[in-house]
Structures are given as C-alpha cells and as structure tokens.
Amino acid sequence: MGALHMLRETQPFNVLLPTELEQIVAVGQTRVFERDEIVFRQGDAAESLFLIQFGLLQFLFRQPGKEKEIELAQLGAGRIVGDITINERLTRRSASAVALERSELLEIRSDALSFYLECNPAVADRFYLEMARQLLNSQRVFVV
Fold first, then answer.
1. What beta strand segments (E) does 23-132 contain?
2. E-strand spans in 6-95?
3. Which of 10, 54, 56, 87 could, after both became Cys, cross-link 100 (CB 3.0–4.6 A)?
4. In the chain, how many domains are there?
C-alpha cells in the first residue's frame, strides 16, 4: 500500500483531496530503518511526523531518574507518529522510537507541512478541524 493510500485512510489527512495529499507526500522523504535502529530519542526536537509505510516501531519512555525504559506501544503500517508536532514548533519527543523490524517511514517535516497549510487556507481549515475532532474523540475515551 502506498503513502497516498495510507494517508487517505489516516486522520487527519483523510479529509484531504488526492491532489492535496500528493502535494504533501511530495514534500516528504522516505527513510528506511533496520531492526533495532533508533528512529528518534526521547527529548529530541520533534521536527517531523512519520507515516509508517511498513514495519513495526516500539515506543519507549524513561522516567526521570530511572534507568529502565517502559514500553508504551508498538505501532505498524498505516499509523502516523508525531502529528501533534505540526502545531508545536518547540516540542521535544516524549518517548523514543525504535524499529522492531526493517521499517519504511515517510518523514514529513513539520515546517514544510505548516508552510503548505499556511499557503492553502481551505486545506488548513479542513485539516485542523479534523485534528480537533480526533483530539476531542480521544479525550472522550478517557472521560467516559
């Protein structure tokens, strides 16, 4: 499954038109990570979001003052990581990501996506509205 199809199926990108998705994919860069390779570390600057095209990532969190890392999640193909960085220009990664197997990711720099959205206000309106809906729905899961 290609990046365009995956983005079309993934919030908040699912509200964009195919031509809009093509433009976003065009600013991305495909990166391949081998097994046990670190994608990013907790505390790194969060300058990109990633679409997992294939493979599996493990997310680890280390509490301050502790040596042992805690596994938070494992995510595979079709999942987006770091989408909150779009609005948070000075954000640091809250966890580390490690490839559990050979993985291919589409990296989209937050500044490039933000620039695209700023230049396309109608697209930005739909995109940010969908992000807000997604956040609201995730909050309902915790409240209920």
1. 29-33, 38-40, 48-54, 56-62, 69-76, 80-81, 96-99, 103-109
2. 29-33, 38-40, 48-54, 56-62, 69-76, 80-81
3. 56
4. 1
Which amino acid, one-letter code, is at 77? A
pLDDT digits (tens, 9 = 90+) for 126-137: 999 998 888 787
Domain with 95 in it:
3-143
> Which token pair is 76?
């595979």
Span 35-89, pLDDT tens digits? 999 999 999 988 899 999 999 999 999 998 888 999 999 999 999 988 766 665 5
Q: Are 69 and 60 in contact (CB under 8 A)?
A: yes
Q: Decide: 57 and 75 in contact? Cβ < 8 Å.
A: yes
Residues 25 and 116 sit within 8 Å (Cβ to Cβ):
no
Distance CA 129, CA 16 (A): 11
71 vs 127: CA distance, rounded Å: 30
CATH classification of the domain holding 54: 2.60.120.10
